[in-house]
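Thread: Shikimate kinase, structure

OP (GT): Posting the sequence first so everyone is looking at the same thing. Length is 159 residues per the record. Can we get the structure tokens written out before standup tomorrow? I want them in the notebook alongside the other entries.
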Amino acid sequence: MRDHAAILITGMSGVGKTTALDGLSRQGFATVDTDEGDWIEVADGEPLWREPLLAALLSRPRPAALFVAGTVANQGVFYDRFDAVVLLSAPSAIAFQRIAERTNNPFGKSDSERRQIARDMAEIEPLLRQAATHEIVTVCPPEEVIGELVVISRTVSNP
């Protein structure tokens, strides 16, 4: 018997990563938002996962599926440790509307941050898409996104 799946949820700002994690957590799944806590270190201005911490997390036994959310430059180091890499995406107009309306994260409120997000959508999102095993376009209600993530976790898990 092997552990339940470890799923990486990645994507640009405003696509619904935090909303999905919140819903998965309410359903009893283990979740880690790497934007919070000590998961990130900044090297040369670039946020990176603290690799020993992520390695330890992914090495632990998993009695239920584990959903990890984040988008950092060194996440590819861990792709082979995840059972699925799920890209959440949304049209830029929707993502920017969500960013403007959200109250749980200040990132993306300034003009310079919005320009950075637009650049990342153009340059980074295509790279994430190439590496992803699944993509969910988050124009549907959050409950549908969460449901799709649960299905993915069950599809790739073999406890």
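GT: Both are above now. Quick notes for whoever picks this up: Helices lie at 17-26, 51-59, 92-101, 111-123, 125-131, 142-156. The first strand starts at residue 6 and ends at 10.
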